[in-house]
Amino acid sequence: MTSMPTDYEQLQRWLGEPEGSRFEFKEAKQNYHFDKLVDYCVALANEGRGKIILGVTDRRPRLIVGTTAFPEPGRTEASLYDRLSRRIPVEEVQTADGRVLVVHVPARLPGMAWEIKGRYLKRAGDDLTAMTADELRAIFSEIGPDFSAEPCVNAALADLSSAAIGAFRSRWATKTRDERKLSWTDADTLTNAELLVDGQITYAALILFGTRAALGRRLAQAEIVNAIRQGKPLPSFAGTSAHEVRLTLDGLVKSPEFVRFMERIGEETLRTFSTYDFLVLDYLHRGQPLPEHLRALCARVACYRRRGVGRPRQIHAVETPACGAGRQGCLHTEAWARPRDQQGTVDETHRRKWRRGCTV
Asked: Please, which residues have CB within 8 angstroms of residue 8's CB and are 6 or more apart in sequence?
């Protein structure tokens, strides 16, 4: 995604780049076929992100020739979202030499490849071609971000065993022959071992030094959140007894669309979600009724596109102060076909209808 508008100097630097290095340049003076734009978005995302620049010559030294293709960038962005279920910013850059259109294609998620109508595309010279079975196998076997390095929200030093940290500190000092380490506090030890980041306990610290109570309370929730975010079935604790914990994790992604939905929410927003927020979204996307203990909770404003038989439909959840039945913090959900216009605005008729319905 793009965070700042592209200026003329930045555009000129891009024009000097070789096309294979995450850039695709098209003259497109009069128009450009939308299906071809979709295909190139898929290919660039599979290659790790990139930019499609319309209104410039293809060969270096590239010149700005201007383009009249896609006169309404907002509508084009909405159409790309409708086709690929991902936000792809489309930016219009006005220069003295003419109008240039920049399509900012984000990178695919680890372990996932973009496809359109069952085709996993990549660039091959000036053409597009299907990715090979080996290339797809390599993508699907990728490992996502290191979960253990992430901070465990609300965890504190009290959740860790001071004795376990002391034993680790002693062994570390012995191994490195550095007795100065013995004078470190628990916080110093964790910080220097990169297990305490910006004052927050990481999951790695919790796994290594967590007390029995903290492990049961924190890690069980972490596995649930991790499974939901990755579109996988919830972890199973079947077989757990008073003397042992058995945890079964299903590695198969059941809902790629839900993973894309999580991507659209954004990492910064997801960090503010509680375990219960994730559970509410999980119940909604699986089309299951909310349990009683979750009904009193408010869900974040969210939207999940479900593709099934017939036209695409959407499920929305919204936080409201009270519902028609008089319950505070009631979760309203309703499905309808294509409630938004091309600019992504919810039609007020549907909005009023939606507000009146209460499912809990």
From this structure: 93, 95
